[in-house]
Every structure is written in structure tokens, then in C-alpha cells.
Amino acid sequence: MTDPLELPKAGRRPRQTFELEETGFNEVPKRFRRFYRRWRGPGDKLGPNEALCPVCKVVIRSTKELRAGDRVYCMPCMSRLELVEEDGMLIAKVIY
Amino acid sequence: MTEADNPHELGEAEFRATVHSFEFWFEAVEGYLHGRPYGVSPGLEEVDLTERQRDGLITTLCNYCVGETAALDASSGMIGFAPDRGAKIFLATQVVDEGRHLEVLLHRMKQLGVADPDAEIARRANRSLLKFKDRLLEFVDARDWEASVFAQNVILECLEFTVFRHHAGTADPVTAEMLRGIVSDERRHMGFGENDLGRRLLTAPHTHDRLYKIKRQLDSLVLDTFAETMGELGIEREERPDLAGDYLAAVARLGFRS
User: Fold this and answer.
1) Is residue B118, in this structure, part of any structural domain at all?
2) Does residue B258 belong to any structural domain of this protein?
3) Domain holding B165: CATH number?
4) Per-residue pLDDT tens digits for B10-47
5) ipTM value greater than 0.95
6) What is the pTM assigned to this prediction?
7) How many Å apart are CA B183 and CA B101, to the nearest integer?
8) Pairing mode, strands A58-61 and A71-74
9) How far does the CA of residue A24 sit from the closest CA of chain B (Å)?
10) pLDDT tens column, A19-29
11) Among partner residues B161, B190, B202, which is closest to A96 by beta-carbon distance?
12) Nearest residue of B to residue A20 by CA position?
């Protein structure tokens, strides 16, 4: 089976895009609030455009589907993160 | 939405300049503190506490005051030897946060009937936490940036962030809302510390061994404080959350083994 990461860009499934709604998250300036939400505990599930910040446990949201290698910012704790794939799951790791 | 409103589109330097600014701080704290005197919504009703619950809560708040005073003294001192203007500005916002935390905690103690908070803090303060505070202030007096950031923004802030989050989940409604506001501030302080130190360790790996020795000195004080706080809150040993887990995960990300 071909690793999808090895396919030429044209052969990859296009990324899904997302319209972000307000989530009630209020710990960053207003214009950035829709990019974050609170983690609701063990029953919570991350969407394809979301990643959990390992530093402060806030959910980071993007307007596009996240994939391994993407970089996102957690504004509430000021961390820069990179998405990596581990055991088939997408994990956010801090890059200093 | 403009591109400037998408945080993930910012360049690294632009991101750092944005989040380390007073402008960012003003607009962030407005979201969760505006209209909440002493961090609590007007009209939020008190619930009756048993005498044991009230006494345990007062002891816990006394220890929170020790931690917040340590952070206030340390962060204000660190401005004088912070390595760049961005760090100085960020620390100035942290000083304001720490002063507010101390104020709301003292206010809560008064609401619980404590007439002389200073005397109560002196009587009830956790010895391990006091030792931690002394050690932190020694690093600040020595103008040792790496050790100060590590002890304050990584270890102390991680301890506070973890304990306050768990406590907010079980506390009475007034204490819980006050704590949630503090937790929102602590995210910034903790993240600043981990990221600053993480960048420094990449360029000065020899710092790692020195900080590891400091971590070993401070670990027992931190872990004792976690255990004692859980006892004060009346949480049975077998039901206690893994508070040390978050702390150990943070230091592990920086490359320190436990």
C-alpha cells in the first residue's frame, strides 16, 4: 500500500475546510477566540481540524483539516506546536 | 475574517511579539474578568460550608497566598534581568496578574471570616512551600534567569495551574469561579516559562545539567505540597487525581527525566 504522504500533492485528498463558530472561549482577544475551545474531558473528541495543546489542555482549531507536519499556535499559553502522527493518531508536540 | 485574525498564519516572531504584549493581555483578561469584581460574577450565591470544609478551605487559601506572593516577588524581581524587552513586558503583565491573584485570595479569606489573613498565613503555611519560595527568591537575588524561570514559570506555575484546575472542579461556586480566572492567567505564565526555557536549552545544552540538579532539589518540595494540599481539601488518598502527572509531563517535555 502506498503511504499517502508519498503521493504527489495532486494525488492527495484535498483538505476539508471549516467555518469556525464562537465556542465561548474567552481567554484570548476577541478576534482569535473562535480558534480555541475548552477541552470537555475524557468524553470529548477532537475534530479533524482540532488539536489538544499538551501544555495548557486547550483545544486549538483551524479553518482547514490538520495533517502531520502542520504548525499551529496555542495563544492561551503562547506555544508553537507541530502535528505529528504517532500510532495512527495526530498528536501536537511543542516546538521551542 | 482577515488573514491577520488567523493566529496560525502569523510568523513566529510576529506571534511572539503579539502574545508578549500588554495589548494582548488587556484583550485576553477582558474576556474573563470584565464585570467580575474580585474574579466572581455579582449575584453568585454562597453555599453553606461545614466548619471542617471552611477550615480546610482557609488553610488551602493560605497556601495559595504563599505561592502567589512568591510569584509576585519573583516575577517583579526578574524584570530587572530579563534577557530582552519582550520578556520584560510579559513579566510586567505577570506581575499584575500575581498581584490580582493575591488580592482576590485575601478577599475570599475575609469573606470566609478570617480577620487577620497575615497571621493566619503565618500559622497555616505549608513548610515545603515556604522552603520552595526561599529557594526561588535566592535564584532571583542571584539574577539567575534560567533557574528563576525554571523554578517560577515551569515548576511553581505548573503546580498552581494543576492544583487550581482540580480544586475548581470540587470547590464551592464562589471559590471555583475565582480559581477559574486565576487558571486562565496561569496558562500564560506556564507557557511563557516552558517555551522560553525550551528555546534556551536548544542553544545552551550545558544548562540542562545545572537545571536538572535544581529540579532534583525542588521535586520533593513540589510533590509534598501537592500531597498536603489534597489532604487539606479532604480528598481521600485513593481518590486523589494524579496532580504530579502534569508537572512531570511538563518537565519531561523539556528533557528532564524523573
Assistant:
1) yes
2) no
3) 1.20.1260.10
4) 999 999 999 999 999 999 999 999 999 999 999 999 99
5) no
6) 0.91
7) 10
8) unpaired
9) 10
10) 999 999 999 99
11) B202
12) B1
